[in-house]
Amino acid sequence: MKRKTFVLFPSLGVGHLNPMVELAKHLRRHGLGVVVAVIDPRDDDATSGDAVARLAAANPSVTFRILPAPATASPDPGAHRVRRSLDTLRLANPVLLEFLRSLPAAVDALLLDMFCVDALDVAAELAIPAYFFFPSPASALAVFPPPPDKESETTKIRLYQFKRMMEGKGVLVNSFDWLEPKALKALAAGVCVPDKPNPRVYCIGPLVDAGNKVGISGAERHPCLVWLDAQPRRSVVFLCFGSQGAFPAAQLKEIARGLESSGHRFLWVVRSPPEEQTTSPEPDLERLLPAGFLERTKDTGMVVKNWAPQAEVVQHEAVGVFVTHCGWNSTLEAIMSALPMICWPLYAEQAMNKVIMVEEMRIAVSLDGYEEGGLVKAEEVEAKVRLVMETEEGRKLREKLVETRDMALDAVKEGGSSEVAFDEFMRDLEKSSLENGVCS
Ligand code: UDP
């Protein structure tokens, strides 16, 4: 049988690119051919551009192809971010089509990010089977999209994307069976599209960056990793809020006070407040944090501007708890390091992720106060940090994380549920190729 070749098409943003690259690595480990076709991120945030270069350098076994970005991101320059992103992805169809036609060998399947739904038209034109990759939890697929406001433009776009996702041949989910039994039961019962056969769901995760600690000399490591090397085991509170998380100055000051009064060590990734991001992308820490904070905490804390190598940080044995915005990649990365979490959801499906993380999976506790744009007070930050780091409840949380990590490791080992699901996906693909008369 000829080696199968897949083209992976991530949507915009690091939170979608990172897991797609993990999927690419997974396919390569199974001996499959892979090309990741990325729309030139020059019109997107600078972080994505850096990420493509970094991921390409770190993963020589994966072929990346940068597709030219459409001349205009959206027919409506004033459009909302979610609309612009949908428009950009749709306007990229001609370059995706041209790129696929230019490949020397036939493509066996297109694996599309959950938001790249209009690429289905390209797949149909070239008669390539299209599957979706869902980098959020299966629970989010089962209730997709959580509509806080049915009339909002974002909800309408998400509904459109969801409906089109159901046109795919199947959905690969970055999760594992043990973690989300309720959602998977609902999905198996056909909750997505009533009265119609639902696309098959394959939980093939967790696919997360395992880091690259071995063989890296101290000189090449990020300063925050070197700093962590000098901290006691499980002593550090790590705070990082995804690729987009940012707080107003008043909130940054509350966090700083809470950390300081907790007395615990910390590593904190800080961005400029949302309203300053275009004018001052580099946060002015002296102005944004309480007077004297950096000086007073210089022996016990480290503040990193904008970006830290999170996949490696969460694996570091000095880290004891992760204050997270509940992005699914961050959650899976923490699970694979058996790291308890403190939830502070900010955008997208994170509020729902928080509920399942705290109430169902029991791998996290939540902060109070952020709802409806409120401030999380310094006392609350201190209380939750102390709860996880110092109390019996924190110890139990850690135990639950160890169990969850072990179940995740079981899922991805040979014969585990995620490997079995991946084999089923390959078999189904093979079957559908044969039914369509494609010889391989
Ligand atoms: N990330 C990182 N450093 C940072 C912030 C984020 O390496 O300072 C990575 C993180 O490890 C994860 C991804 O960016 O792989 C963020 O994905 P997630 O789903 O957690 O959140 P999103 O950015 O989509 O909101």
TrEMBL record:
InterPro entries reported for this sequence: UDP-glycosyltransf_plant, UDP_glucos_trans, UDP_glycos_trans_CS
Alphabetized CDD domains for the sequence: GT1_Gtf-like (cd03784)
Entry's Gene Ontology molecular function annotations: UDP-glucosyltransferase activity
N-terminal signal peptide: none
Gene3D superfamilies tied to this protein: Glycogen Phosphorylase B
Key words of the record: Glycosyltransferase, Transferase
EC number(s) per entry: 2.4.1.-
Family recorded in the similarity comment: Belongs to the UDP-glycosyltransferase family.
The protein's name in its UniProt record: Glycosyltransferase
Organism name: Oryza nivara (Indian wild rice)
